[in-house]
Automatic annotation (TrEMBL):
Signal sequence extent: 1-27
Domain of life: Bacteria
Keywords noted in UniProt: Signal
PROSITE patterns: TAT
UniProt domain DUF3131: residue ranges: 427-788
Organism, scientific name: Albidovulum litorale
Pfam families for this protein: DUF3131
Protein name: DUF3131 domain-containing protein
InterPro entries: DUF3131 (IPR021478), TAT_signal (IPR006311)
Keyword set includes Signal: yes
Entry annotated with the keyword Signal: yes
Amino acid sequence: MAINRRSFLKLLAPSLALSSLPFPVDADDAKDAVFIVIDGFDPTIPAEFLRAFVETFLEIGVPIGLIPNSNLASETKKTTAYGFRRIFAENPDMVEPVLWLPGLKELPSYFQRRAASDAIKQMSGLLEGFDGVTRHGPVTIATDASTPSNYDGLRCLGIRNVLSLFPSPSVSSTGCAQRTVCLYGSKQLMIVDVADPAPWIEEVFAEAGWRQIVFSLAGIGQISMQDLRLRAQRVSDAIGRELSLGRRFVVLPREHARWFGADQLRFVAVRIESGTDVSSAAMAAFMDELEALEIPVTDTRPSDLESEIDLLLLPDASAAFDGGGRFIRGDTTISQAASLLANGNLMRDAVVAIGPQDYGTLHARQATLDTLGRFRQDPGTRLVDVTDFFTATTAPDPVFDLLRETRRDIIGDSDPQALTGDELLADARQAWAYFERFSIPATGLCVDTADVQAGYSWLHRELTMWDLGSLFAAVMAAHEIGLISDDDFVARSELLIKALPVVPIGELLLPSEVISADTGASLSRNFNACDTGRLLSVLRELDAYPLTQGVAVEKVAQWDLDGVVIGGHVHSVINGRPVDRFRSQCAHYTARAFRAWGIPADSPYEVADAVSKTDRDMQTLLALAGLDPLGAEPLLLEALEAGLSEPSRLLADVLFSAQRREYERSGRLICMSEAPINREPWFTYQGLNVTASEERWRVNVTSSDPRFATPEFRRAIMLVNTKAAYLWDANRPSSYSSLLVRHVRDRTRLEGIGFSPGVFVATGKGMPGYSDINTNAIVLEAISFITRGRKPRSNL
């Protein structure tokens, strides 16, 4: 989006109409805009110094933007702060307050809003008492980014214009994205460093083009008032000489937002309040008139808006985005709306409130319609209802929108389709059939994956440490449910403990990544951090289980696990070298498992302290950026084995709610996790892409072959995951989880070999004859969790 150079002078009419500006008679020929910004003043600078410098510009009619030091907000009784306030009070059409927000580009949209909201609150306090400034708030911010960025998230706070003040010989004007506009590049001068600024200014104006000039007053307390006045006079004289040539014009920064015409309309929402029975007839007549004039209006109370769209309207409030994730805007009465039609406020979004006093009589109705008519006549304004206002001024934020949707989601308690005890027991027996058929008696181990068709059988006989963790979990669950005896349980557990590998990997003794199901021999000299985290989590349960207390301590002690925790991050070891696995969905689960064995480890989900719970939740969700899609594992395994931690509870809520809402919107059953499949590339990671606005449901494969990278292929292998369905039934009992579990149990049951990994969404069919250790183990683990009252064993 760029300015139309042929038409922007027409859009500049309000600015050019200021008779005090030092334009020659042929000012319409001036093509190059100049924006002047003054910053660098703080409570240490005497108020008279600030005023002396600013007045040199005002005396020749040159408008300026002022950036106050953030410390001024807490020093409102100091003379500098008072002087700053007086400047705005006396010169509202010539001086614009500009917020300084360095580092803004590096922040996600949510935290851009939070930072800007805090700055607006500070400035509102600084300017409190000056009508027109406090009520409407700033529309321009300044930052330090050297490259373009998206600042649309700030429009909901009334921000229309962004000045990027990094040093540059040229200035570029463009849309930051869709809802805000940006000026990039500036020339900067420290007034204290230059006795005669005139040559510098002349050099700045030597070539044609727009200019953004920043004069810093930092340190001016070091020079005398007389010297300051002399430097200020030289500045204003040099600028005046340039303007007299008719090549340039000076405007306030906020005017920039108006120059984009229809691409940058301001939005004014109209909200009407009902009154008594006496005024109901007048309101009906008024609504008819509005409809005839095609003026949109919202007939609702502010409290209803807050519950529907998180928009809180408060009389005369500064725009804010609070720690609870609410958008706050000032509600301007129609009697005060004239201020929004004044030159300085023509770019401000607003919500106009109309009460019974504004339509109760014919005279009042006409006055209100006249005011609304003036808004309609402004080519830069669009009248909308409140919902459209919220949509137009609030940029999409995929992560925050996901959190908001989750919080609004209400999961009913009624579940007439819940699995009965008999059905759960039947499913447990079905899953245990896999282990009865494919276990190897000599080692206690089990085939990893089985593909058994008529006249064909293929058995994968290699086990990862993740598989071993699942095998231990299956044996415990089978005993707890009553499928195997005490003696059988103990014998199986002891065999499995004996089979755990202890091998040299690099310079450490560790469990190897893969072992043979037939012999227990190590098949790899690598160590997998994520898979071992799964194993350690289950071994902690086994070690506390009544019949096997302490059974795993000795074996775990043989592993040099503390040696793979480097800088707080649990590392894998590949080809003898440590590889950081911190940036993965399993790192939190792994960290908790290591801690359970007394080994400190960090988690990517555990973020720094935040001001509010919403801030903390957003930090957690944003930590998932760049990771594999979020699926049910290992997220819900944590719930079964140790209880959900705070960040995992949030992620579980977000994932479950998103799946359920998708079903309500599209009719597609969504239940995603990692899973093997019965075709190349054999294994997939499926789940929610938390940070994406589109393609939220992702299917990642373990191969770089382009055949598996097409949208068509990914859609074809998307699953309603069997083990995930049972995990949700265990952790989020509801009609949706029951719908999931009934869907998979009817389509993935394989006679004599357990359950298949899932049902293909595209076909509604399972995988004939194809089953695996993890699917059946986790089904058993989930059912045992349900039968013991949905509590981790550690809580019993």
